[in-house]
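Hi V.,

Quick status before I head out on leave. The structure for the redesign project is tokenized and pasted below; the design run finished overnight.
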């Protein structure tokens, strides 16, 4: 026999979506019907996802749901690449027409440190230096520059000690 849903327990659900889009209810239903949500509540969750991800328009983001007693609290958990692309302040593109985009903008090293501080609690590195190196590697894969230099040059300057990362 199947066990009943415990309303007092706290459950965590992660969903990946594109920012600003309204997800169809049939994609959310398998995730939330097990928590005793009704169809109109799932429609409300889909609209709420669109509202909280509006800052990350057309970027892939992860949303963390904390479900307790049939109440879902949503929180956007951005990745390093989405934070970097957001920091580039590039104009909107039509994702159906423009494919495989190399982001050729430039961001400051202070932006990289701010992004690393946001990602530090989820990072596996012990110090901020390791998280900064991880963000610089993501900058390399995205294709942007840091203060006009390639991310590889900034990483080498950090190894040599000419560029200091605050702790």
């Amino acid at each position: 026999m199947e066990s009943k849903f415990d309303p007092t327990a706290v459950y965590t659900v992660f969903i990946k979506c594109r920012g600003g889009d309204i997800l169809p209810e049939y994609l959310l239903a398998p995730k939330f019907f097990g928590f005793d949500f009704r169809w109109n509540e799932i429609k409300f969750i889909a609209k709420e996802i669109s509202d909280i991800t509006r800052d990350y328009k057309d970027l892939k983001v992860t949303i963390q749901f904390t479900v307790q007693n049939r109440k879902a609290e949503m929180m956007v958990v951005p990745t390093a690449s989405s934070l970097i692309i957001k920091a580039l302040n590039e104009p909107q593109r039509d994702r159906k027409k423009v494919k495989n985009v190399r982001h050729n903008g430039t961001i400051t090293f202070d932006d990289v440190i701010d992004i690393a501080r946001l990602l530090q609690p989820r990072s596996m590195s012990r110090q901020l230096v390791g998280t900064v190196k991880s963000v610089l590697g993501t900058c390399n894969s995205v294709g942007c520059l840091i203060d006009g230099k390639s991310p590889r040059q900034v990483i080498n300057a950090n190894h040599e000690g000419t560029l200091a990362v605050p702790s």
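Above is the designed sequence. The longest strand covers residues 60-68.

G. will cover questions while I'm gone.

Best,
W.
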